[in-house]
Design brief:
heterodimer, A: mainly alpha, Serine Threonine Protein Phosphatase 5, Tetratricopeptide repeat, two-stranded antiparallel sheet, B: 689 residues, alpha/beta, Arc Repressor Mutant, subunit A, Rossmann fold, 22 helices, 36% helix, globular
Chain lengths: 216, 689
């Protein structure tokens, strides 16, 4: 696969939706430990709305910028909450980064995650170590930039990003929440994986797995 | 053997000759532990400690009069000791001293310093060469330490000097430590960070620096702080880590700093642009020091301390109980709880599925809205087709500031119950406990706009803040002036006002803002009055049982049979403290104490009182609580000028209540008395005379 196009991104989103639906209970359980327990349903509901919107899309008649904007709007209208504005901002930024193209050189695809991370970061303003989804998105974006600069082959980059996302989600266990509702728990948030970080790792894994498969 | 003998090194947890380090020099605590916890006889204790039985008896009596043995302090201390034992076992520490986290007036760093000094006094030996790192805890330990019993000691500064204007630089820490123990001080006469690797190599070859660095290979002990990478960390003021994108990226994977080196979550070194330019002890040198004592505490340091322990950079730890427990939690270990040896009473069987009147859980919010819109058809109607944005029939009018409120579902009658003349003009409703998206907020804003601008009023939660912010931006570009006020009345949720969350005090703030708008005041004044109402509102919530979401129908968290959750929010978030269940009066006292401390009213001041059920607590219990609240306010000379009791801002089916007080003045009282007509809050017009 020399190029990543609209259909590839749609495949990523479909896979992400399926995995988030599977993980609804697990994410809800994580959120129940330190938050209000709705993160699983929020993410599943948001991606279900994306799926419904994708059914109306003619891949030949759209470009990546329009596709991401559609996803951002669908996700936001369906959930609101905290995840809504964050992922909507991230998806819009990824779309803006694609600059109206119908496809990208495959090697550049991980930069979509960088743009996504920047959009989320700007909206939520969380820093590394705050025990939020940014504790996955920041290291993933950092690694994507580094691999890009090094010219690492796509397959290796994707495997690396997936691994980093999983480790980073796990590492939130040792952090004290200082943003969002869990912040009020102080030290009691220790020992729990942040649900937003866990769902971010699921998204990165879906991205990596689908693109690796379609690249092969 | 005399108990205070300084011979021999500190020993582990097993009872034996000599005072184990974790008891420090505290023979009273040691004797008390053996007597009360281990159940030993006074004769056994006398033999183990090496004193007479008469001394043990006097120790035990002394421990009681000095408060070492009493219910609260005892529990804390014992827990601290258990945490210390677990930390030692798990990380293979040579010793661990854990001080209680609560109960004292002193700041944590001073307590850590005192504990650190106690540990150092027991560990330092004549003839030692002791390395000293930098940091607030290290400096505090040096300042708390004073001994003249040691001879021929050298103290070596292990990190180069910094020019930062903080009191705890490497040079200051080494100097203070040397002074405390009467040691010769060997400074490190070079900067911690120099401009180039070449300059570093040159400097390290120069005479004083070379000899000073050579001393680092002779250390037999080292005392270190551990810095976190968090924004609040002293690291950023230390001069060791310059801010800038290059450093941020290079050290993005680091979670902490120890002896001038950055380490990742596993304790492995993270290399960046600084290592080759750094003058000080290397990690290899550090690993060769037999005894590496870290003094560090504070829960924001957990990842950094964990990294230092995982990497084996420290083998003696002095910390506080909350941090120690946090480290164990983060490692997935259970925190040992010392419980009195009484039988546990079996609680009621745990309900696994909470019964609810539902159809499809996913449809719960929309079905409820459909019903509510019909029930309150005399007050409100949908803005467009959707029930997620509702507008008052008799509210918005030309020239009047529109008041838009909103938030997640599950708080009924918040928020839609407050839509009507004299209160909110429109409302946006999200899913259960989740902010509405910008779409319905924008719809509500447009519907409420009478050309005089719109005030957005909602609780301080990150989701609501972001969604309302996006809607305000859209409204603004559509030519509607929007001001925003987030409510922050929950005293338990944070120290400073702007970090607090908004809970039942919402209702009184909505009331005041709605009255101001109904008087046709301009947007700036409506916003200012809303802010004043919010700034003078104080709420504390207490939960007895958790709520359960429609989707799961399971309790969101567990509250033990004999416990209650203090400071609970309205989203089923666990509270900020879990404590033993109290009766109604004691619970009310606890709440009133915290509110009065925050409010600080004067004799004769007036308050408005809102007694609120969090869902399942009946009015009868609210009245019992309210009775005691009034007794306390009367005793304080505070007048309850207005009051309400009932369901005002709930958390689904949570068992619990909240108490809100608004500190009144004539202006706020006038706003509360202004007539309003909404489904859940009504003030009748009164003929004044």
């Amino acid at each position: 696969m020399a190029e990543v196009g609209v259909e590839d991104v749609m495949a990523v989103l479909r896979e992400a939706a399926a995995r988030l639906t599977e993980a609804t209970e697990e994410l809800g359980r994580l959120d129940g430990a330190i938050g209000d327990g709705d993160h699983g349903t929020t993410m599943a509901r948001g991606f279900a709305a994306i799926l419904r919107a994708l059914n109306e899309v003619d891949p030949a008649a759209t470009d990546l910028t329009a596709l991401f904007a559609l996803c951002a709007g669908s996700f936001l209208d369906a959930v609101g909450a905290t995840a809504g504005p964050l992922y909507a901002s991230g998806l819009l930024r990824a779309g803006a980064w694609a600059e109206g193209r119908k496809s990208l050189p495959a090697a550049e695809a991980p930069m979509l995650l960088v743009a996504l991370a920047e959009g989320i970061g700007q909206r939520g303003k969380a820093a590394a170590g705050d025990k939020t989804m940014m504790d996955v998105w920041l290291p993933v974006a950092q690694a994507a930039r580094t691999e890009q600069a090094r010219g690492t082959p796509l397959a290796a980059t994707l495997a690396d990003l997936k691994e980093i996302a999983a480790q980073s989600a796990e590492a939130t266990r040792s952090m004290t929440a200082s943003r969002g509702r869990a912040a009020r728990l102080g030290a009691r948030s220790l020992g729990h994986v942040d649900p937003g970080a866990a769902s971010a790792a699921i998204l990165v894994a879906a991205f990596a797995d689908v693109l690796a498969l379609r690249a092969g | 053997m005399p108990p205070r003998s300084s011979s021999g090194s500190a020993r582990g947890a097993d009872a034996g000759a000599g005072v184990p380090l974790r008891f420090g020099d505290d023979l009273l605590l040691w004797a008390s532990w053996l007597y009360y916890e281990e159940g030993m006889t006074q004769s056994d204790i006398a033999r183990i400690i090496g004193v007479s039985r008469a001394s043990v008896i006097s120790y035990l009596a002394d421990a009681r009069t000095r408060g070492i043995v009493n219910i609260s302090i005892e529990t804390n201390r014992l827990r601290a000791l258990s945490v210390a034992r677990s930390l030692s076992e798990h990380f293979g520490l040579k010793d661990c001293l854990v001080i209680p986290s609560t109960g004292g007036e002193r700041p944590l760093v001073e307590s850590l310093g005192a504990a650190g000094a106690q540990a150092l006094r027991a560990l330092f030996r004549s003839g030692d060469t002791i390395g000293v790192g930098w940091g607030r805890s290290v400096l505090a330990a040096a300042k708390a330490l004073s001994t003249e019993a040691l001879q021929d000691i050298r103290v070596v500064q292990v990190t180069g000097s910094t020019s930062a204007h903080v009191p705890y630089t490497p040079a200051a820490c080494a100097t203070a430590m040397a002074a405390a123990i009467g040691a010769e001080c060997i400074p490190l006469s070079a900067p911690a960070i120099v401009s180039t690797p070449e300059l570093r190599d040159l400097l390290c070859r120069e005479s004083p620096v070379r000899e000073q660095l050579a001393c680092l290979a002779e250390l037999n002990r080292i005392v270190l702080g551990i810095a976190s990478m968090r924004p609040s960390s002293t690291l950023h003021a230390s001069g060791l880590l310059k801010d800038g994108p290059m450093f941020r990226d290079a050290y993005a994977g680091a979670v902490g700093e120890i002896a001038g080196h950055f380490v990742d979550a596993r304790g492995l070194p993270v290399s960046g642009p600084l290592e080759a330019r750094m003058i000080g002890i290397t990690l290899e040198d550090l690993a060769r020091v037999p005894q590496r004592i870290a003094i560090a505490g504070g829960v924001d340091k957990v990842p950094a301390i964990l990294a230092a322990l995982r990497g084996g950079h420290a083998n003696v730890l002095v910390t506080d109980a909350a941090t120690g427990a946090g480290i164990l939690h983060a490692e997935g270990l259970s925190v040992p709880q010392v419980r009195p040896g009484q039988e546990t009473v079996a609680g009621l069987p745990v309900r696994t599925r909470v019964k609810k009147f539902l159809n499809a859980p996913d449809e719960a919010v929309d079905e409820a809205l459909e019903g509510a819109v019909a029930d309150y058809a005399g007050f409100l109607r949908p803005v467009r087709g959707s029930n997620r944005a509702l507008v008052a029939l008799d509210g918005p009018r030309p020239g009047k500031v529109g008041v838009v409120i909103g938030g997640g579902a599950g708080h009924d009658p918040c928020f839609l119950g407050y839509v009507g003349r004299g209160m909110a003009d429109a409302v946006a409703i999200g899913n259960v406990f989740a902010s509405p998206p910008p779409g319905p907020i924008l719809d509500a804003t447009r519907a409420a706009d009478g050309g005089a601008g719109v005030l957005h009023l909602f609780g301080n939660y990150s989701g609501d803040v972001m969604n309302f912010e996006m809607a305000a931006e859209m409204a603004d570009s559509g030519g509607i002036a929007v001001r925003t006020l987030v409510t922050t009345d929950d005293v338990a949720s944070a120290g400073e006002r702007q970090a607090r969350r908004g809970v039942a005090g919402n209702v009184l703030v909505f009331k005041a803002a709605g009255a101001a708008a109904d008087r046709m005041l301009p947007l700036v004044e409506v916003a200012a009055l809303a802010r004043k109402a919010n700034d003078r509102s104080y709420t504390i919530g207490v939960a007895l049982e958790p709520c359960s979401l429609p989707e799961t129908q399971r309790p969101l968290f567990a509250i033990g049979a004999g416990e209650m959750e203090v400071g609970v929010g309205i989203h089923g978030e666990p509270g900020v403290a879990r404590q033993a269940l109290e009766n109604a009066d004691d619970t009310a006292d606890l709440v009133v104490d915290r509110i009065l401390t925050a409010m600080d009213p004067k004799q004769g001041d007036e308050v408005a009182l809102l007694l609120n059920s969090l869902g399942a607590t009946p009015l009868m219990e609210l009245h019992i609580i309210g009775r005691r609240v009034r007794q306390r306010l009367k005793a304080r000379g505070v007048v309850v000028a207005r009051s309400w009791a009932g369901h005002y801002c709930t958390s689904l089916d949570m068992v619990g209540m909240s108490v809100t007080m608004m500190h009144l003045d004539a202006e706020l009282k006038g706003l509360l008395d202004h007539p309003c007509h909404t489904p859940a809050f009504r003030v009748a017009p009164v003929a004044t005379g």
